[in-house]
Specification:
three-stranded antiparallel β-sheet; mainly alpha; 353 residues
């Protein structure tokens, strides 16, 4: 089969699963599902993953063209409004991905505008970033790689000042988190007396660490108003991070934690990285565009061929260290798989999301 055929069939399966999930969860937000029963653990407000559920529903609405699907996506997006003023850098994940696929929906557009202004107001000028925040407990003054993707695009939506803030937010995280050979240190804590220190959690071998950072860099390279501050640095960072996912003998699906060689895999990290590579392949003038596009398609084909069952992307790992949902369907894994497949089939222009 051609890529469009296998990707199109898989995309339909994932989006049919989303419709069944919507029926089963109602107004609650799916988080992760048991691999045997398919039953979802849900949250009332969506936590940091709510935008991915809204994004999946918008993808389904695009796929079907059905007014009911569009109404369901719009209603889900509206339920994300409480996160606009929440003290968390994951507003990027929630409010960018929850609105980016909404097209001309006025409610989503207004929500994104409000969120962009709120994110810009949250920038700490001394630290040069939007702090991780206190919404989920723990220290507030953290820099975490999962607080960068989505946030770059969301800040950039706030106009010229927002673009400068997006560049500052990204570059400060690159200063801290991008280590030698593309290896990431996922989280840092700031102390007024001693400065920044690396955190033990998430660990340096965390699968989603480099995937999130690669996605954020790809986001920036698609926004000239953000990238123009240091294009050479961003291109070099993209190459270093992408190399960790494309070098020979690199597994298509990584371990959830490199320190656990017999531990669980994480298909969600592979799906995130595949989308990031597809984005890089669409950056004008990217010298490794063909390599990145080929690798992304190969990763997505592996996920579909070996880990997709009845529209459920299994073998995702929520938290290996705590043993939480270590071989499950994860809502963000489904979203990024669907987004990658939608890009392969032409349903979306990946650089716009």
């Amino acid at each position: 089969m051609t890529p469009v055929n296998w990707a199109g069939r898989a995309l339909a399966d994932v989006l049919d699963r989303a419709a069944a999930t919507r029926t089963g969860t109602g107004d609650r937000f799916p988080l992760y599902a048991d691999p045997d029963t398919g039953r979802w653990t849900t949250t009332g407000r969506g936590a940091w993953t709510g935008g991915f559920w809204a994004g999946l529903l918008w993808l389904r609405a695009r796929h079907t063209g059905d007014a009911g699907d569009r109404a369901a996506a719009a209603a889900c997006t509206a339920r994300l409004a409480d996160w606009v003023e929440a003290d968390t850098a994951t507003r990027g994940l929630i409010l960018w991905y929850g609105t980016a696929l909404a097209g001309g929906d006025p409610g989503a557009r207004e929500l994104r505008t409000r969120a962009a202004k709120a994110a810009l107001a949250a920038l700490d000028p001394e630290l040069g970033l939007v702090p991780w925040g206190s919404a989920f407990g723990g220290p507030r003054l953290l820099a975490r790689v999962d607080g960068v993707p989505g946030m770059v695009a969301l800040l950039a939506a706030a106009g010229p000042e927002g673009a400068r803030a997006a560049a500052s937010h990204l570059h400060r995280h690159l200063d801290l988190c991008l280590g030698a050979g593309g290896r990431t240190v996922p989280a840092w804590e700031f102390d007024a007396e001693t400065g920044w220190r690396a955190c033990d959690e998430p660990p340096a071998g965390w699968s989603r660490g480099s995937a999130w950072l690669l996605l954020a860099v790809a986001d920036a390279l698609h926004r000239p108003e953000v990238a123009r501050s240091a294009p050479d640095r961003l291109e070099a960072a993209a190459q270093r991070l992408a190399d960790a996912w494309t070098r020979p003998c690199t597994p298509f699906v990584p371990l959830a934690d490199e320190a656990r060689p017999t531990g669980p895999l994480d298909t969600s990290a592979a799906a995130i990285a595949a989308v990031a590579l597809l984005k890089l392949a669409r950056v004008p003038g990217c010298p490794a565009a063909a390599q990145y596009a080929y690798r992304a398609a190969a990763v997505l084909e592996r996920l579909v061929g070996e880990h997709l069952t009845r529209g459920m992307l299994l073998d995702g790992c929520y938290d290996a260290g705590k043993g939480i949902a270590v071989r499950h369907e994860l809502v963000w894994g489904d979203f990024f798989l669907a987004l990658g497949l939608a890009a392969l089939t032409g349903l979306v222009e990946i650089g716009d999301v």
